[in-house]
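User: Structure please.
Assistant: Input sequence and predicted structure:
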Amino acid sequence: MNATAQLAPYAEPMKTSPKPPAPIDPDRAWEQLVARQAGAPFFYAVLTTGVFCRPDCRSRRPLRQNVRFFATTAEAAAAGFRPCQRCKPTRPSTDLMARARAYLEAHADRTVPLAELARVTGLSPFTVQRLFKQAMGASPLQYQRALRAAGLRSALKTGSSVTDAIYNAGFNSSSRAYEGAQLGMTPARFASGGRGERIGYAAAPSPFGWMIVGATSRGICWLSLAADERQAVSSLRDEFPEAELHADTSLAGYVDAALQSVREGSDLAHSRKLDGALDLRGTVFQLRVWQALRHIPRGETRSYSQLARELGEPNATRAVARACATNRVAVLVPCHRVVGAAGSLTGYRWGVERKRQLLEAERDVG
């Protein structure tokens, strides 16, 4: 299979018996209600008003003895309570997706079926699947695999044995890790800097410097910008120091697709030339940041603090900046659209001047 082959289809979910959702701890739930914690896994109802709310509802705090907790909106409604008109708990929202995400992260050691995630959010399986993918850029199953992959990558890079890393990350076999870890190569090869892996690449000049695309047999693992061809190839070598690199002219079309995405405003992730053959290989938080970057309209920018607030993590400005700095796929994940609080162009992995050129090109097209 050559370097332009598509990513292997996602494997079937692991055949494990799902655990029922954990019962609500009233004392813990009350603490989360007092803190108005968005995404907490419950709804609360107030006996004196007959309404039920989200945990972060801004209405007056009720007395503890008048509060009842429910896992879903359906349970609250069945108990005779009506939805609050202020926080609108029955309306699908980013809070529900935050709850879904938190639940998946809390149960990263196993596959959470859609039916279970639906019970947690109070939505239908179809709706939770659709809304989650809209919010996160990945299905719940793909997100779960990204969680396990992040654990696997972290363990491999800190020196754990491949076997220990695989099982500690939640994979029940080495084959599952190979299929679902989204490393772009086997776990052992990733741990050794790509040793034994063949990575094809194509580089070409562009208005923004030399652009290089690298790909394994499972998809694109690198898209970078550099001052010249030598530096472009060196960037790939630095990322995979033990891999066997070879020029592959069949990848040139991917370079063209990347340039077209800037010139014409097309979405590189959905380009027919790429057709899904992408492997971002990020941590869970990086995936969230990168997905948020793709939602910034072309020609516009956001500050790091704005992006952190949009993610529901207002104190994570530095973590957002680190995620931007470690982006491996220039243009596809437009980290050039993030600027300093005062609008300054701050740092950029591929150079501040190149960042300015990309923004100007997008504004000219937009």
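Residues 198-263 form a domain with the Double Stranded RNA Binding Domain fold (CATH 3.30.160.70).
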